[in-house]
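Bench log. Compound arrived from synthesis this morning; before running ITC I wanted a structural hypothesis for how 2-acetamido-2-deoxy-beta-D-glucopyranose sits in the protein. Inputs:
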Amino acid sequence: MLNVKVSNVLLMLLCIFFLLAVQAAKNGLRRNVVLIIFDDLRPALGGYGDYLAQTPNLDAFIKESHYFTRAYSQQSLCAPSRNSMLTGRRPDTLHLYDFYNYWRDFTGNFSTLPQYFKAHNYYTYGIGKVFHPGISSNNTDDYPYSWSLPVFRPQSEKYMNSPVCPDAGGILRKNLICPVHLQTQPLKTLPDIESTAEAIRFVSAYKRRRPFFLAVGFHKPHINFRFPQQFIDQFRLEDFNNYTTDNNKPEDMPNVAWNPYIDVRSRDDFKHQNISFPYGPISAKHRSQIRQAYYASVAYVDDLFGKFIAHLNKSNTIVLVTSDHGWSLGEHAEWAKYSNFEVALRVPLIVRSPEFPTNASQNIHTIAELIDIFPTLVDLAHLPALPSCNKSSQNLICGEGKSLYPLLQGVGRNEEYVALSQYPRPGIEPTKHPNSDKPKLSNIKVMGYSIRTNVFRYTLWVRFNAHDFSKDWNEIFGEELYDHRLDEGEDVNLAKIPEYNETCTLLRQQLITAFSK
Ligand SMILES: *[C@@H]1O[C@H](CO)[C@@H](O)[C@H](O)[C@H]1NC(C)=O
Ligand SMILES: *[C@@H]1O[C@H](CO)[C@@H](O)[C@H](O)[C@H]1NC(C)=O
Ligand SMILES: *[C@@H]1O[C@H](CO)[C@@H](O)[C@H](O)[C@H]1NC(C)=O
Ligand SMILES: *[C@@H]1O[C@H](CO)[C@@H](O)[C@H](O)[C@H]1NC(C)=O
Ligand SMILES: *[C@@H]1O[C@H](CO)[C@@H](O)[C@H](O)[C@H]1NC(C)=O
Ligand SMILES: *[C@@H]1O[C@H](CO)[C@@H](O)[C@H](O)[C@H]1NC(C)=O
Ligand SMILES: *[C@@H]1O[C@H](CO)[C@@H](O)[C@H](O)[C@H]1NC(C)=O
Ligand SMILES: CC(=O)N[C@H]1CO[C@H](CO)[C@@H](O)[C@@H]1O
């Protein structure tokens, strides 16, 4: 009797050891994941063919990566875009178009990308601006749901909107263009420098058996353009004079589509320029200065990116680099984001995985969306696939995007996917009050829905009801059609031209079907 019992116990112990060994082996094979989100970065990168950019570190990284040339944000505003990307759901599903609600309490207790990794035995950590801080992530960056420990927020972050930019007379201003010497800055540092140091500390000190999921959110190139002086010195102002030829709002652009770049106007160095509201223009000299400062801001975060990336072990770490949306640099005479134009929506999307090694930057032209990142990283890490959401399921763990994993394998690159984006307005004319660049939910009266197909961008501005989130496809305030075969800059709106009537009708049907799912 006793012998039988002893052997049972031994068998049980053996089983436990075996299971532990299997788990350890699995963890050993599991790769670390690093997600890097830049703020307001359009693909102004050498690796994306932009010859004005000075981004040696991202360029070298792209050489070892697959990069998507046509990746799009779901809404060109920080909080809604990040909530959409990180929950894998569209703004219309989340009902989040501004900064002032938290999806778990407002819409549904939806899982997030880091939360999914945490649930699958990853150690998850966030540094800097990953979720938009504040109410939209419940003032906790969605901790503890998404993260194994509280998110690192740089101490110098609180001075981001303070008067910290010395003018010619040494007086500190709240300027748009703000090259600085670190010694003059509060805490003698900048937020992204602090975040980079913390990211390096984390990956260098990491000793756990579990793999990690690390998200690093850089604040730049978002305004103000504050960076160490040396980064602006490397750009010549005159190189930015002929960046676009769009000096005035295009005649055929519906007023509802216009974003009056109120945040740019409100900075101390632009306040007194008497830029006519809402259409400007900004003087030629200032146009070049803003572009130069944007590119300098990109060069600055590229430098920090390079310092961090050098500390990663290439052979066991998946790295995905992206941004929340783009930024207009004078296209259509517009600045900032807040629109449905290609320049405001197109983002870099770069994937380096030991599973897909390359030496010679592989570009993928298939259309991708930021909501695709969640299922893609899940597949790259070989976790159980993320189910796709559908109306019949009340599933809290699902995504609305597609996995880009097959595309990385080389499968399905000719699929004609589309990208869907949207932007809200408080009315049909640009206004300061309410701020038509970023209306609060209660003020939203119009929604611009946009579809990017292989060759067209089609945008329809319709009545939106903020109380029940319904839209009326028959009450139209603006219609835009751009043909990217002829007009990459989206300068000529073809929607009113009779020859394009049929194209508009077809795209309108496709758009309504896509946004009614
Ligand atoms: C929300 O989901 C998380 C896990 O995903 C769970 O821990 C929490 O209890 C849920 N909250 C509510 C209110 O259901
Ligand atoms: C969000 O924060 C509020 C206030 O701290 C808290 O009452 C609420 O439970 C939080 N929501 C979730 C889902 O944790
Ligand atoms: C802006 O307008 C004010 C008042 O009309 C004028 O005093 C000032 O010189 C103008 N500034 C510029 C830069 O034109
Ligand atoms: C990098 O990761 C691989 C695979 O896990 C491991 O064999 C190698 O020792 C690591 N290199 C360093 C420098 O830690
Ligand atoms: C990278 O290039 C070297 C030679 O330049 C080659 O030997 C190696 O196989 C290449 N690796 C990959 C993953 O293409
Ligand atoms: C809906 O999604 C669930 C999983 O989230 C899946 O099991 C089910 O088959 C889906 N239904 C349809 C009609 O696609
Ligand atoms: C466009 O075609 C529709 C029918 O598809 C027609 O009702 C409408 O009048 C046409 N509009 C123009 C401007 O030709
Ligand atoms: C080719 C071209 O358009 N060149 C113009 C660039 O901008 C300067 C003004 O800064 C013009 O003088 C050039 O004609």
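What the model suggests: Residues 275 and 282 are 6 Å apart (CA to CA). The mean pLDDT is 95.
ITC booked for Thursday regardless.
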